[in-house]
Each structure stands twice: as C-alpha cells, then as structure tokens.
Fold this sequence. Notes:
Largest sheet of chain A: 5 strands, mixed
Helix content of chain A: 25-40%
Structural class of chain B: alpha+beta
Largest interface: A-B, 20 and 29 residues
Oligomer: heterodimer
Amino acid sequence: MRSGLFQIERSRATDGGSTLVLTGEVDIATAELLDDELQSEVLATDGDVRVDSSGLDFIDSSALHALVRAHRKLEPDGRRLVLHDPSNFVRRVIEINGLADVLMIE
Amino acid sequence: MPAVHGQGAQEKLHRLQTLTDAALAHLSLDEMLDELLERVRELLDADTAAVLLLDPSAEELVATAAKGIEEEVRQGVRIPLGQGFAGRVAVSHRPLMLEQVNDTNVLNPILLEKGIQSLMGAPLIASGSVLGVVHVGTLTPRRFTEEDAELLQLAGDRAALAISAHLSNHERAATAVLQRSLLPERLPTIRGLQFAARYVPGEPGNLGGDWYDVLLLSPDLVGLTIGDVVGHGLRAAVVMGRFRSALRAYAIDSDDPAVVLSRLDTLATRFEPNEMATALYGVLDRTTGTFRYATAGHPPPVLAVPNGEARLSEVPTDPPIGTGITRKRHNHLLEIPPDATMYLYTDGLVERRGDTIDRGLARLRAAAEPGLPDVGCSRIMKTLLGSEALGDDCALLAVRRHEVMPAGFELLVPARPTSLATVRAEVRRWLRTTDATADDVIDLLVAIGEACANSIEHAYGASDGKVSIRARIEGSTVEVSVADRGTWRAPQGQDRGRGMTLMRKLTDNVTISRRPEGTEVTMQRRIGASESA
C-alpha cells in the first residue's frame, strides 16, 4: 500500500477542461497541496474541473474541504467539479458527509 | 397329488430339509419369503400361500408376500390384530385351520373372490413375540392334519428367523444413518468460543434419542441445545429428529429460551402424544458470556472455571417436553467467565445401575475442567464411562469462552501531520485481525484520522509533542482512544467542524474528556457483518 504517498497528475482535455488524477492518501499533511492544485486549476481553465479519484486510498475532512472550496469557486460560472470514478473509500466518505448530491460524481 | 399325506420317515426328512435349506439364508428377505411360500405350497399341495407381517404400529397385519393370491400384496391388504382369519392366528400364537371359508370367518374379500374353500395358518414367532402370520389355502374343501400344521409351523419359524434378523439389521442401519444426519457434523466456528461434543450410543450400533445442537442466531448470539428423547432405537431417533427441527425453527423466532421450550412442548403434546423428552435450551452471548437458558426436566449445566472447583448450576427445572403442562416456563442465567468451560450432557453420562444420580453428578464435577473443550470432553468420557458398556445413550457438549486475541494496540507518535500515515497503517493492520468489514475499515480510518488530526493540530509546534492512540476490541465493539497533551481546542473553521461530525457519524459513541494534562477522545463502534441492524 502506498501509505502516506499522495500524487497529483494533470491532463488537459481538448474541450478546455482538465483532469486531475489523484492517487494515494489525503490528510492534513497533504490537503494543502490538493487545495493549491485545485484552486490553480479553477483559475487556469474555462471548463469543468474533473478529478479522477479512483486511486485514492484515504481522504479525510481536510480533503473534502479542498474539494468543496473548488466546487464553490466554479459554481457561480456555471462550471462544475466532477469526481470521476471515485474509489469505495471516497464514495463512502462523500456519502456520509451528505455531499453526494453536491459534488458531481460520474 | 397323492404323496401329500405321506407317512414315511424319508418323506418327513425331505420336507424338513426343504424348509430349513441353508441356501434360503443367502436370499434377500423378499426372495426368501417367495421361495419359502413356493416350497410350502408344493409340500402341502395348497393353491395359495401368503405371509402377512405386523406393521410398526403393532395393530395391523400387512400382506407382504403371496403365491397364487398375489392381489393381497398388490392391494396392500391390512387385517387388524384379532380379526379375520390371519388376525386370529396372530393372537392365538398357534396354528389354526378353517375347513369352510365364508364371509363370517374371514375379513379379506380377496379370499372369497378367489374361491378359497379351506385355510390353515401359523404364527411367525421370534423371541416370544409375534411378527406375522403365514397361511395356505385350497380351492377345494380340505381337512388339514396335525402333521400339516406342524409343517406349516416349521415354515413359519424359518420365516420368523429371517424376518427378525432382517428387521433388526435394517433398523440398526437406518438408525445409524439417521443419527449421523441429525447430529452436527462439524460444530460452528465462532469468534471467542470453542466447542466440542461426544455422542455414544447405549449399545454399539443401536442408537437412540439423545441430541445436541449449536445454532448461530446472530453474530453474537449462539443457541445451544441438548436433549434426550425417552426410548431407544429407530423410533426414538426419528422423534429426536422432529424435536430437533422444531426447536431450531422456534429458536429462530424467539431469543427467549423458555418460550422456545414452551412451543416445543405444545407441538410435542399435540402431534407426538406418546413421546417424551428432556431438553435444555439456552442462548449464549459470546461478548458478555451470559448464558440464558431454560430446562425441561434436564440435568443442569456444569461450569468449570480457572482456579476453582467446577460447579453444578442447580436451578428448579420445569416439566419435560411432551407433558403438556401449560405452566409458564422459566429462564435462568449463568455467567461464563473468560477461559471457563460449560458442559451440557444427557443423563446417560451420570446415571449408573446401582448408583445414585448425585454420585454420578459428583463424579462429573470432579472430572470437569476448564480449558480446551475437546480435551475436557475426552477426560470426562474417560473418567465417567471408561470401558463400561452403557445402558443408555450419552451425549456431551462443551463450550469454552476465551478472550479474543489480539485485543488491540498502543501507539505513540510525534504530533506531526506526517504521523497520520503511520497511524493508518497500524489501524489497517490491526483491523485485518478482526471481523471488521470493508466499510468498518473505511469508517474507522476516517474517524481515527480525524481525532488524530485534531490532536496533532493542537499539539503541533509544542516541543516533543506526542499523540497516543490506544485501540482494543471487546466482543464486536472496537474502542479507540486518542490523547494529546494540552487542552482541547474547540473545533475551528468548517473543516474541523466536519471532523467532529464525521467522528460522530462514523462511530456509535464519542466521548471527549478534558484534563489538565491533555485531551482524550474515545470512540466506540460495533463491527462485523450485521452491525447495521
């Protein structure tokens, strides 16, 4: 298990949107990094921000906070934060927090 | 055929040999009866010959083999004992003759329809009891002689011998198969409990009505049964099977042992009016060790504890199953401490001819030890039974409660965000040794992670700040405490507020205790497959 390791990869799509591929674990040690990346992505693109979270083994409330902050920045422009293929872990934590209807899951 | 009444010694010998021919013994019962009837018919120059056997109710004779009157068997003719020609032969215990058959002296219409004029019958007797009747008939009126009667009785004795051997073999085999199918092949594996059992029939191969059962009612509750149907042999084993199934069904519906036994009693009284059984049924909570049980005329459990004498859990017993006494039945409580072993048994274990039951119980108490149930069972069987032949069946069921290992872990980490990964790795490793489901693991990782994050954020920056994590499991409840040195800081900002919400949502109980030396968060959560119930 890649315990404690957190990685972000960026890939830009042709429609102007982009995808952040997250792997590993996000806690207070790494949430700031996630928050920074999401915020700069929000500014750098015009379209939706897609987050591939299939490789996330752990997230806590600080990770959720980063995701929700990005969602709030996008919302006024009619853009969305899209969680692509969330892992069971991510899915459960999002459901328990009542965020399943707020964050777009695909 | 003129030779029928032949007087010669040669002829007589021939007849005897015909009926006692050893070759008959090698045939199956059906073939043997067929062959015997054929020979009898020939020797006595009769037109018909038939064998009727007493059915298991011992109230009716059933046509089993026939020559010249095969309809009897095909139509399943039944003659009540004492009635009709065959019925009278059976109760008279000796050969009878009927010179002129008519509708007043025979019951079976087939005899009249066939045109049978005269009949002679002999009882089939083995070990003093009547198994059935053999009779021959003629289509022309005939006066049978004493010698004819002797010959028929000889045939009857030969048939009785074969039938008796066949029936007891058959019953033995059937009982053994039944018993094997009814006693649990393998006792279940339940965390925190160990089981062992013994069953010994009263006579080798001749099994009976003792039974035991272990039922998984829920992840924490286990139903334990031991019972003893009065009587032996196939009949007792069949009744035992019915009682066992009924008890299982009632056990699923109610976790109240007194109610389960009351329902079994009602069923037994209504549908098995001639049967009686003693039984003990109880529900054991593997997490607390509480055994709640009711007893229907059954001997009490024996509890063997570490560093102490085994004791009988003597409580007033309610009436046996099948007595139909509607008085309310009672539950009793027996606490099984960790590392103690409880023994349930049938009276065959403690009853000896020429000895009191109290002495048998004293011997059992002396032999009962805590520890591995299998070792305990072996010791008890060896001490109480030795090599003695039993007069009665004997069943023994042992259950031992033991602490579940590993119980938990303790971890002290620097109050730095990078320590969180270390904590998670330890939590994952530990939960793998428990019954935790995938969701349990996710929830506990998040809840513990939030508690640790709070502690770390608070103590962060303090010189050599530490966070301690203690985790343990009792039964199916996980308890995790996270402590730091410093005062608890009220959750600040939205994310930390969410942290508390998460902890409360993901666990069953969260306690925060603030002390001058630091703050401790303790969380409890039930884990395992059915925790959502």
